[in-house]
Amino acid sequence: MKYYLLIIATLCLIPKGFNRTLNAQELTPSTSLLTDLAQNINSNPQSASDYNNSGVDYSEMMKYDKAIALFNQAISIDPNYAEAYNNRGNAYGLLGQYDKAIADFNRAISIDPNYAQAYNNRGNAYDLLGQYDQAISNYNQAIKIEPKYTSAYYNRGRFYSKSGQYQKALADLAKAIEYDPQHAPAYFIRGNTHVKLRQHDLAISDYNQAIKFDNSFAQAYFNLGSTYSLLGNSEKTREYWQQASTLFREQNNLQAYQYVQELLKKLPSAE
């Protein structure tokens, strides 16, 4: 049964990257929407906000190079447009260009020293670069500016969990959930933290909550099954790993799909 412990040791944590909710109205990207935005830009070429908003939508579609070009246009029109710098920093971060991301977050903060989201995003960039003291400092500042900032509590809690500061992690993740009771990633990371503390019943409860609020959360299904494996419940382990496997395949995460398939083969045969 040693492989069950290995599974828990390699819990599939969700990516640590940047907030995909950027500083513009949340819109569902669509061809018609982008056509409308393009028409707005053509009819009013001096509108930095149109370029910024269009860049947000391209970012939401993961077309980051196009988004960056649009944020560049917004900044060229308004060099003090803090939101555009933050949004361009997000796009750079999602491309893995963390130094450029930090430079943009620095600029956004220099324009608006109370820009909590830019501090939060800069914290994520420092975290990904392994500069953990700077990451925590930025999360702290984001929370100081906005004491109910869910994402900053979540990110700081996620950091504390991975660094073994479990009680601090639980406190921050509880805050994130208090301010956003449907925050599936916060439940997920709190579940992982409970597993590390061998609080398996609490972990199961949190993974179920994560799945309740995001029924496509493949990693949560996988970790839920892994927790049942620690409890020796092969039936529940199989049930949730199979659901995780299906979701990984549907999401084109073939490496994770194949990994779970191999684990399923090692389970005792169902009676």
Structural class: mainly alpha
Strand content: under 5%
Distance between the termini: 19 Å
**Count of helical segments?**
15
Tell me the radius of gyration: 21 Å
Biggest sheet statistics: none
Say how many strands there are.
0
Topology summary:
Blueprint: H1 2-9, H2 31-43, H3 48-60, H4 64-77, H5 82-94, H6 98-111, H7 116-128, H8 132-145, H9 150-162, H10 166-179, H11 184-196, H12 200-213, H13 218-230, H14 234-250, H15 254-266
Helix pairs in contact: 1-13, 2-3, 3-4, 3-5, 4-5, 5-6, 5-7, 6-7, 7-8, 7-9, 8-9, 9-10, 9-11, 10-11, 11-12, 12-13, 13-14, 14-15
Give a quick summary of the entry.
With 271 residues, this protein is mostly helical. It is built from 15 helices and no strands.
Walkthrough of the structure:
- This protein is mainly α and 271 residues long.
- It has a domain at 216-271.
- Helix content is 73%, strand content 0%.
- The longest helix is centred in the C-terminal third of the chain and has 17 residues, at 234-250.
- The protein is globular.
Attribute tags:
271 residues; 15 helices; 73% helix; 0% strand; globular
